[in-house]
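Fig. S4 source data, part A: sequence.
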Amino acid sequence: MSARTLKLNTGAPFPALGFGTYSGNPGDTHQATVHALRTGFRHIDTAWGYKNEHEVGAAIADFLQENKNVKREDLFVTTKISDTLHAPEEVEWGMQDSLKKLGLEYVDLALVHWPVALVKEDPKDNNSGFKKDEDGDVSGD
């Protein structure tokens, strides 16, 4: 697979096609991410809220271990900051937590997942961090 690469305003390369890692089944993300990397994807998109960054990180590590000709800097990893972690100290905590789970020293791009701050429960208790109302809907107030 030969993916088209765009240039960011900094001149850094940005793979135009990315592999999204949202998955509802534990274990599926690792296998799917390794497969995507083996088939040529070099842009991996994940998020703190997907609760599978540990699988994404393990997949990246496994792929790099088996493909010595590919280096970390050949990959473009995007993650997203949870909508419940918008305060500056929470953004920093969320990014550090993502890096730890991914097993990476850096990500290439960090995005705000949604441009809406949601009411949060304690994000460190490893739940989704989304507070739900009595109907089970995510609460924005």
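Fig. S4 source data, part B ends here. Strands lie at 5-7, 13-15, 19-20, 43-45, 76-81, 109-112.
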